[in-house]
Description:
mainly beta
Amino acid sequence: MQMHRVAAGALLFLVAVAGAHGATGFSNTTPITINDNANASPSPSVISVPGPTPITNVTVLLSNMSHARLADLTILLVAPGGQKIQLLAGAAGSCTAQDIRIAEEGRAFGTGESLSSANMYRPTALPAPMAMPAPAPGLPYVTTFAPLIGTDAQGNWSLYVRDNVSGVSGSIGGGWSLFFAGAGSAEVTPEFTYQGVLKDAGAGANGLFDVRLRFFSSPISQDPAVGEAVAFGVPIQGGVFTARFSPPEVVFGEGLQRWVDVSVKGPGDPDFVVVGGRERVTTSPYANFATLARTAELAEVANTAVTVKWGSITQVPTNVANAFSPFAAAAGNAIVNTNTGNVLIGTANGTSKLTVNGTIESTTGGVKFPDDTVQTTAATTSVVGSRSVLTTLGDIAPGAQLSVGFSMPGSSFVNTDVVVVSPSDILPSGVGILYARVSGVAAATIVVRNFSGSTVTIPQMTWTVKVIR
């Protein structure tokens, strides 16, 4: 099929307004086991709504859901009136112990991302609804809750879950719930609706077409697209169509201008055909912006010209407000950065790299020294023996050494005691103390060596010996 042109409509960015559920939910908390390559157990899981309950909105909650390969799954919701809504089919991704909420105003299930309890998702079947075996009813299915709006929820609601590929199993550990009112607490997303006219040889096209949008950073650059989004099975009548797209967040995440081209693939077409030149993506006449992020992870990058003020953030742990450079003094619990590389804790005075006013405690590990040794214990020392002796050691030949003993009556030394020797004068050049150690329960020995090449005379001086434990 030769497509001549697309008359493109405006790009309308849809913003869902957050709100609480306006009605009590109905739940079946029995866990659902997602068996490998088989129907789940039980199949179906049923929620019975006992009395008249008008439906103004629908939200399905899958509690504590875990599955490592969502592309294997098909999930079908069947209403008491027989409406069949396929909640999930063919959408890649994974989830681990997450509460998955599905509502009309949610984002599309991703094509590889891990699902998060922080998000709301809408029914998604890629590329089209997939038939499920008995006991689930057969096709056709829809991927919208629209047929339920305005009806009554009373009766039995059935949830069918099927794993279609061997290798991975999972569970919906907390069962599932239904809500029939409220806006659903969906977050703002970069999704939008595209409206256009598709003509074939001058006449409006009719049928089901796949529509693809590719986004570029320039109207003429040959660089690859920065992202794309595809709407499958878009109904086109008389050439007119409306399609909803979920581009990757990177497309608009940097706030840069984008240009988009449109291509379509009709029944029997081997590939997409580009049907128009690139158009610049413009803003809608009225746009909402978020003044509050639900979680900090939503703010991945902060513009340096528009930074977030810490003073506007509440529920900050004690003293955390002072723990960011440059630090500021705050009474006795201050953590202060003097902007000279010195950190002071509990005081505003100090010239060392770290000055602490208070007790330093290590619950594990120890203290690491510049030679990479770690000391995990510490103890005070005491002098267990001491003696000073006035003596002349005399001549020592080149390379020779003298051994001098010191008796200390009444002492009781052990081999691990340390001997410290202090001569009263400076030793002659070339002479040094080779070692000093305990030589008995009440004695210590020092060895003096002549390291020079000539005879050296050591004059009379006082030698003080201390034994430390």
